[in-house]
Amino acid sequence: MKILVTGAAGFIGFFITKDLLGKGYTVVGLDNINDYYDVALKYARLAELGIAREDASVIGHHAQSTEQPKFSFVRMGLEDREKLPELFKAQKFDVVCNLAAQAGVRYSLENPEAYIDSNVVGFLNILECCRHHNIKHLVYASSSSVYGLNEKIPFETTDSVDHPVSLYAATKKSNELMAHSYSHLYGFKTTGLRFFTVYGPWGRPDMAMFLFTDAIIKGKPIKVFNQGKLERDFTYIDDITEGVVRILETPLTGTFDKTALYKVYNIGNSKSVKLMDFIAAIEDSLETTATKDMMAMQPGDVEKTWANVDDLIADYGYRPNTPISVGVGKFVNWYKGYYSVG
Fold it and tell me: Which parts pass through the membrane (predicted)?
């Protein structure tokens, strides 16, 4: 099976690619390597996969891994309506895992155009390529942010998601609607995955786990929004990876009925953790007490997230289960090693 992983230089895409290669699949990674956060971290992830920075930095260049014979990488944006179909035609993928997107809730308030370009126009281009190049299954990243102002806890995939509170959330909901229409019209399978607050080694610098750890180690105060009265379903990266790969590996027998062509799942730890408890776990791991700046609620944020994963259990026999104490410790150890701390 040959798999295209978009966003392969990103946090989740890196781990998905690494796992798929470990299982013996042929993988082509794609990423535009934008400067939303430090590109050095993106190039470092690719280096772990055997792709040199000088090869990865050339737009359109197809770089072969020096360590993984079944992995190659191309720098390209999903918005490229000419080059993307050429890639699909040349590579003849069986399955596509679309993780590339402009991420971040708060950044969508500053640069909304980037979200439309990548998350809407780019996703349409992916759907069109899947349609015209006989892709058997498209697995794509959605987000828990689609639940918006939903007050019913825990969040279920049958809940209404018609009230997003950020443009980022609106683009992710649009992806689900677009995928549904393409599955219905053209008969190929699409699976959307609503990720819940993913954290772990190699994580994004704009996420809470990274921001808190970085600030505490450097002796700086941490920003605690909504006076700390937030709860999140924190999900460790290994749990996300296993869930995504299980879905990618599902045999496609061609016997799916029309409704089964389109599915959406929550992937979360099925537990809502108080933000202050999360911070306490980081403090324990660092053996340091953080200086906290208690701040107001940020636009686009929600007070609580919590995933119901019954569908994931029923269809794939899988439930994420890494406790915060374990996941936080692994991130802190990675951070100290990567940045040569202590």
Answer: none
